[in-house]
């Protein structure tokens, strides 16, 4: 283990330095989410934060060169809408109002700015980390760090960024990093760490878009489990949200197929960039419609 850390991290400072970008963005995302929660009703926060789904999809096209057909964009849009309905149904907060009873517009606008910043940071950091994990430099003699070393690099930068904030928000005489730690907290931390490793595996062998669908399904399952365990009451919005999430997942996974060239091509794609099956079909149709040559 120490040899791998020495070869993959210490002896490759430039590679380790690159992971400071997503670590800083994730750190900024968490700060913005806390500030957004204090400025927005939970329902507004949950609905607006689903904009990260589109950020991930757009950046995957721009940074990773992914080709997303129109039916996949439909599935991504449906996922954002369905997940927003599911999470908004869990919220019971009332609107934030000022002392005179009027909506505090400025406070809500600030909260929206925070949540949009958090969504953008999360989307960019996820796509950037995916690019780092899947990238390779065959011309270089040094071996590309593995997925596990990438996680160590990311965690290391998170510690470096988090310690100064901890010292600034807590007096030194009251600073106790293990205050409040019990079996429940340790179990939760262990569960989150396992979840983080699973997310890294999904990004390594899948992508951030698939990770978004996985998170949506887990949110739906957690909500369903909460019904018998905690007496969670569902409504029409929750039922509609679950239906839309499942439908969107089936659409993106091609379990529900759309016929026709329009749905199965990339937006703004020319005929020369069409898949072989589509282009050959169009060519054959053109030949059938072409008039017979006169002798």
UniProtKB/TrEMBL annotation:
It is a multi-pass membrane protein. Its main location: membrane. GO terms for cellular component: Golgi membrane. The chain crosses the membrane at residues 43-64, 71-88, 108-128, 148-167, 179-201, 213-230, 236-253. The keyword Transmembrane applies. It holds the Pfam family Nuc_sug_transp. It comes from the Eukaryota. Keywords: Membrane, Transmembrane, Transmembrane helix. One of its GO terms (molecular function) is pyrimidine nucleotide-sugar transmembrane transporter activity. InterPro entries: EmrE-like (IPR037185), Nuc_sug_transpt (IPR007271). It is found in: Membrane. Coiled coil: none annotated. NCBIfam families: nst (TIGR00803). This is Sugar phosphate transporter domain-containing protein.
């Amino acid at each position: 283990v120490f040899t791998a850390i020495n070869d993959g991290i210490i002896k490759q400072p430039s590679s380790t330095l690159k992971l400071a970008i997503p670590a800083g963005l994730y750190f900024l995302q968490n700060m913005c989410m806390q500030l957004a929660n204090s400025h927005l009703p939970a329902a507004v926060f949950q609905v607006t934060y689903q904009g990260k789904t589109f950020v991930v999809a757009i950046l995957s096209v721009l940074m990773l060169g992914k080709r997303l057909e129109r039916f996949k964009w439909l599935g991504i849009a449906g996922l954002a809408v369905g997940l927003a309905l599911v999470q908004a149904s869990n919220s019971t907060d009332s609107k934030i109002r000022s002392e005179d009873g009027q909506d505090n517009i400025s406070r809500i606008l600030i909260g929206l700015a925070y949540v949009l910043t958090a969504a953008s940071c999360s989307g960019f950091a996820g796509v950037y980390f995916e690019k780092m994990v899947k990238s390779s430099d065959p011309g270089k003699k040094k071996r590309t760090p593995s997925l596990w070393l990438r996680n160590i690099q990311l965690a290391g930068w998170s510690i470096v960024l988090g310690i100064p904030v901890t010292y600034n928000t807590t007096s030194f005489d009251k600073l106790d990093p293990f205050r409040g730690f019990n079996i429940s907290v340790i179990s939760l931390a262990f569960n989150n760490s396992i979840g983080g490793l699973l997310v890294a595996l999904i990004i390594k062998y899948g992508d951030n878009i698939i990770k978004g669908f996985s998170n949506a399904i887990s949110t739906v399952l957690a909500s369903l489990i909460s019904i018998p365990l905690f007496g969670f009451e569902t409504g029409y919005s929750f039922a509609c949200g679950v239906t839309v999430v499942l439908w969107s997942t089936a659409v993106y996974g091609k379990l529900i197929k759309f016929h026709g060239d329009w749905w199965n091509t990339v937006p703004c794609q020319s005929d020369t960039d069409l898949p072989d099956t589509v282009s050959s079909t169009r060519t054959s149709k053109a030949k059938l419609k072409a008039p017979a040559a006169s002798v």
